[in-house]
Every structure is written in structure tokens, then in C-alpha cells.
Design brief:
Helix content: 40-55%
Radius of gyration: 36 Å
Number of strands: 10
Number of domains: 3
Domain Anti-CBASS protein Acb1-like N-terminal: 39-385
Number of helices: 15
InterPro entries: Acb1-like_N, Phage-assoc_HI1409
Biased composition (Basic and acidic residues): 442-451
Protein name: Putative bacteriophage protein
Region (Disordered): 422-451
Strand order of the largest sheet: 3-2-7
Length: 451
């Protein structure tokens, strides 16, 4: 864009200095925020708002975990393998460290010495995954960036290296989590190469504003009421060296008398009055800084500060649902892709093979009440009955789909196991309650007797 086009497209006022070098706002710019790992750790340990901003989204993402869709025996084996490897705990630890320091990874330990080669899940046998280890970006340094546009890792590190050694780890052996990713890693300055930024880096101004505001309000409480005593000829009398001692003794006796009987005794020439601080607008000031913290971490105030929503008819449910939707989107867009290799290895190390039908879905964060679950069950049953009466689908197909629907909605969680045990056939309605007997046209067996 030429200089003439810039002047033409920009709002300027030469008299007022708007948009010119005289405009103070024209000299504002963004600098690179800098916080080393020790400062990040100090903020995490010293500020509960910073700590909650780091931990809440990570804990919520792993709180209800996920539901495997497979046969009952297969699910039990997979979940047992998850417990043995502590998958949920390791992922939570990596997410916390990634959000705090900018990056972390879970190393998939298979017992192989060659960690520089690609980990292929199809080569993992039953019990092949031995352990999982969490490493931060300080413990893993990225090597050079992949420049081959035909590589699936284009623009990402080719490998990671342990500090102080030549041991390289292929990215497929790592479940990599990034705190705040950079749109262009090559332009990122002031962070670990190949990693992202801490979530505290952009949120710390809002955290400091809140902490400083609350600290100042607490200090103001100590000065909520100040007694002012006017003493004639105070400054001229201070020239006497003994006057200061006598003055302090005088004030001590006056304070003692006031504390005992609530009466302040003064000389006839002295005057007394009190000044009280006003706290009327402080709750609004604190509320504004709380909104800044909630916006910085993208966490609603009801979850961040444990406050109830204000306003006519406000329950906070909408904000909570939006927040849970945000966490669910991160589960699908960030956590699940990062765990793809680990999940493939997990299925094989638990079962010894990889059935194609096995998959999982993240458990919903929003927990329905008993009434809501009852309404969902009634609506689902009515829907199934309507579809059956319409005769649009085969009964066997509709039955199988109905079972899946009832189980996924947690209306009847044990229905699949019950069907496997007792069968899916309906009882014969024409037989009544009597025990089954011979057909009506059957002739009774008559034993032949020789004459």
C-alpha cells in the first residue's frame, strides 16, 4: 500500500493530532511478553487465580474421561490396561504442565532401545506398552523443522532430543500437548523452539489486576476509620526535645481511655474528628477485574470464582454449557488427535489385536438431573414406539438401533449385557400365563394293551 493510499484510508485530523505523530495512541505497540519458567512457577504457586486458570480446563477435560464402545469383555480389558498405565493421570499431568510451561509430552515406553525410529502401532503386541512418562519442554528439545511439504509433519520438529545427550525420540512415540500454540512457529520469539507459550503469558495482566485490586481493598480495610486530632502549635512545640515524648504519651493515654470507656478526653484547645473510607463502589471494581480474569482464561465466573450469576432469571446454566462445549471441542480437536497413536497402541496392548469396530466417545461434562434423565427416557421411548408403529424400518434393525440409543443416552446402561444373557427374542404373547402344552389337534399317546 502506498503512502498516499494510507493517508486516504486512515482517519486523521491534523488540527486535533488524531492519527498523526502527535496522537499519543499512535505510539502504542505490543511488546513480547517474557516470563521464564521460574516466574511461571511462582505465579502458579503464589496466585490462586493463576493456579485455577491453569488447572480447571485440564481437570474438566479429564474429569469424566471417555466411554469405550465394544464388547463387555473387550471394554474391561481396555479399561484395565488404562488403569495399569494410569493413562488418565498421565494425560492430566501432561495437560497441566503444557498449560503452565507451554508444552509437555507423554512418552510411550515399549521397551525398545531404538527410540529414533517411528512407532508403528500394528507392531505392538499384547502387553507391549510397558509404561508412560511425562516430560516437559525443558526435558525435550526439538530438533530441526521438517521442510518437506510432502511429509505429514511439515512445519513441525522432525524429532526431539533429551538435554545433554544424543538420544532422539521420534514424534510418534510422544503424545504432544501445546499450551498456547503459535500460528507461525518460525516467527515465535521468547519460547522453547518447537513448543508454544504458557496460558499465563497473556492472562497475567488480568491476574495481576485482580490480585492487586483485592490486596488494595484489604489494605483499605485497615484504614477504614482514621481519627484526626488537631493540636494547637504542634509544629512550633516540636522544637522541644521532650515535647515529642510527652505528645506520644498524651496520645497513648487518650487512646487507652477511649478503648476503656469509649470517651476521648481532649484539651479545650484540641479538636477531634474521624474520616471513614467509602466501600460503596469497591464491589463493582472487584467484579470488573474478575470478569477480566474469566475472559483471559475463557472460564465463566461461576466456575472460576464460585459465584452465582446475577440478573433477572440468570442461573449461569448457559455460560456453563458454553464452557463445557468449549472443553468438549478441545477434547475432539486437540486431545484426541494427540492421543491417536497411544490409543491404537492401547487397544493392541490390551487385546493383542485391533478390531475395527472399537472406538470411544468423550463422556459429557454436563450431568443431567434425575428429572431430566426421566424426561429423556420417556421421550426416547416414545420415539422408538412411533418408529415401530410407522413400520418404516425392519424390526430387527430398529431393535438394534434402539438398544444402542438407550445405552448411549444412559437410559438403560445394562441393556446390552441383559440382552446377551437372556436373548433378544420377545416372549410368545399367545401362550398366556399357562405352561406350554401339546397342540390342540394332537392325539394323546395311548398305550396299547394286549387283549
Amino acid at each position: 500500500m502506498s503512502a498516499f493510499s494510507y493517508l486516504k484510508d486512515s482517519l486523521q485530523n491534523l488540527v486535533a493530532g488524531l492519527g498523526t505523530a502527535r496522537d499519543k495512541a499512535s505510539h502504542s505497540h505490543y511488546a513480547i511478553p517474557e516470563m521464564d519458567d521460574q516466574q511461571l512457577l511462582n505465579a502458579f504457586r503464589g496466585s490462586w487465580t493463576a493456579q485455577k486458570g491453569v488447572t480447571i480446563p485440564a481437570v474438566d477435560a479429564c474429569r469424566n474421561w471417555r466411554n469405550w464402545q465394544a464388547d463387555k469383555d473387550q471394554i474391561e480389558l481396555i479399561e484395565a490396561e488404562e488403569d495399569r498405565l494410569n493413562v488418565k493421570g498421565k494425560v492430566l499431568e501432561a495437560l497441566l504442565k503444557a498449560r503452565l510451561f507451554g508444552g509437555a509430552a507423554v512418552f510411550i515406553g515399549t521397551g525398545e532401545r531404538d527410540t529414533a525410529s517411528e512407532l508403528k502401532p500394528e507392531s505392538v503386541k499384547q502387553g507391549g506398552v510397558k509404561y508412560l512418562t511425562v516430560m516437559t519442554r525443558r526435558q525435550l528439545s526439538a530438533t530441526e523443522i521438517e521442510q518437506d511439504p510432502q511429509s505429514p509433519r511439515f512445519g513441525k520438529p522432525k524429532a526431539y532430543r533429551l538435554p545433554g545427550s544424543q538420544v532422539e525420540i521420534h514424534p510418534s512415540r510422544l503424545v504432544i500437548f501445546i499450551g498456547t500454540p503459535h500460528p507461525d512457529p518460525e516467527l515465535a520469539v521468547g519460547c522453547g523452539f518447537g513448543w508454544g507459550d504458557s496460558v499465563l503469558l497473556a492472562a497475567m495482566p488480568a491476574v495481576r489486576h485482580y490480585d492487586e485490586t483485592v490486596a488494595n481493598v484489604v489494605s483499605l480495610v485497615y484504614e477504614a476509620k482514621i481519627d484526626v486530632i488537631n493540636i494547637p502549635n504542634l509544629m512550633s512545640s516540636m522544637q522541644d526535645k521532650n515535647y515529642e515524648r510527652l505528645l506520644l504519651e498524651r496520645l497513648r493515654l487518650a487512646a487507652t481511655a477511649k478503648g476503656i470507656n469509649g470517651t476521648l478526653i481532649l484539651d479545650g484547645a484540641e479538636t477531634h474528628n474521624s474520616k471513614s473510607a467509602s466501600f460503596g463502589n469497591l464491589p463493582e471494581v472487584i467484579a470488573k477485574t474478575e470478569q477480566g480474569v474469566s475472559g483471559a482464561f475463557d472460564i465463566p465466573g461461576t466456575r472460576m470464582f464460585g459465584q452465582s450469576s446475577t440478573g433477572l432469571g440468570a442461573s449461569g446454566e448457559e455460560n456453563t454449557r458454553n464452557y463445557y462445549d468449549n472443553v468438549a471441542s478441545r477434547q475432539k480437536l486437540e486431545i484426541k488427535p494427540a492421543m491417536s497413536v497411544l490409543d491404537e497402541c492401547l487397544i493392541r496392548t490390551a487385546l493383542g489385536s485391533r478390531p475395527k469396530e472399537i472406538h470411544y466417545s468423550w463422556a459429557p461434562l454436563w450431568q443431567a438431573t434425575a428429572k431430566e434423565r426421566s424426561d429423556i427416557g420417556k421421550t426416547t421411548a416414545d420415539t422408538i414406539k412411533t418408529l415401530k408403529d410407522s413400520a418404516l424400518f425392519p424390526e430387527d434393525a430398529l431393535s438394534a438401533a434402539s438398544v444402542n440409543l438407550l445405552v448411549e443416552l444412559s437410559v438403560m446402561p445394562g441393556l446390552e449385557a441383559a440382552i446377551d444373557q437372556f436373548g433378544a427374542e420377545l416372549p410368545d404373547e399367545e401362550g398366556g400365563d399357562d405352561l406350554p402344552g401339546p397342540p390342540s389337534d394332537a392325539k394323546p399317546d395311548i398305550e396299547e394293551i394286549d387283549p
